Amino acid sequence: MSPVVGLIMGSDSDWPVLEAAATALDEFEVPYEVGVYSAHRTPQRMLDYASSAAGRGLRVIIAGAGGAAHLPGMVASATVLPVIGVPVPLKYLDGMDSLLSIVQMPAGVPVATVSVGGARNAGLLAVRILAAADEGLRTRMAEFQADLEKLVLDKDAALRS
Ligand code: RP5
C-alpha cells in the first residue's frame, strides 16, 4: 500500500526516538515512509519533500528534530498537510530547546507539537487524523482506547486485591 504518513527526522540520530511513532503506525497497519530531511543541512531537499508530499498521496507528516529543531515548522510552511512535531531530547537542555523551537510557531503556520520524546503519541495522533475520514480506523482507535482503560482497571483491581 502507498504511504499516507511521512515520518521524517532531521538526522538518523533521531531514529531511536522516532521509532515509537513507526511502531504505533504499524499497530494500526497505517502505511508510512521514513526519511532523513535536515532543515539546515539539506534545506532544498526538505522543501522539495514538503511541497510534493500531498501530491504524492501523503495525508499527515510527522517530523522529529532536536536542538534548533526547525524541521517541523519549515515543513509546515511548505505543505498543506497537517504536521506533527516531535521534540527530540539531545545531550543538553533536556529537550527544552527542541520543544520551544517546535511549539512556538507564528500564527498561520500550525504544528501539532507532542511532548519531548513523545513519538508514540505522534503516531497515534496521525492515526486519529486519518481516522476522521476512515470508519475502520475509528473503530480500531475506539478498541485501542477501550484496551487502555481495561489496563488501568486491571491494575487498579490488582492493587486492591
Ligand atoms: C538536528 O540536529 C537533528 O534533528 C538532530 O536531533 C540534531 C543532531 O543531529 P546529528 O548531529 O546527530 O546528525 O537537526
Give the tags.
binds 5-O-phosphono-beta-D-ribofuranose; 6 helices; globular; 161 residues; 5-stranded parallel beta sheet; alpha/beta; 5 strands; Rossmann fold
How would you describe the overall organization of this protein?
- GO terms for molecular function: 5-(carboxyamino)imidazole ribonucleotide mutase activity; lyase activity.
- It contains six helices and five strands; from the N terminus they run βαβαβαβαβαα.
- The chain has a five-stranded parallel beta sheet with strand order 2-1-3-4-5, with helices on both faces.
- Strand 3 (60-66), helix 3 and strand 4 (83-88) form a beta-alpha-beta unit.
- Helix 1 (15-27) runs parallel beside helix 5 and helix 5 (119-131) packs across helix 6 (135-160).
- It is globular and about 60 Å long.
- It has helices spanning 15-27, 43-53, 71-77, 96-103, 119-131, 135-160, and strands at residues 5-9, 32-36, 60-66, 83-88, 112-113.
- The chain has a single domain (5-134), classed as Rossmann fold.
- It has 161 residues and is an alpha/beta fold.
- Residues 9-11, 13-14, 38, 65-67, 88, 90 line the site of 5-O-phosphono-beta-D-ribofuranose (RP5).
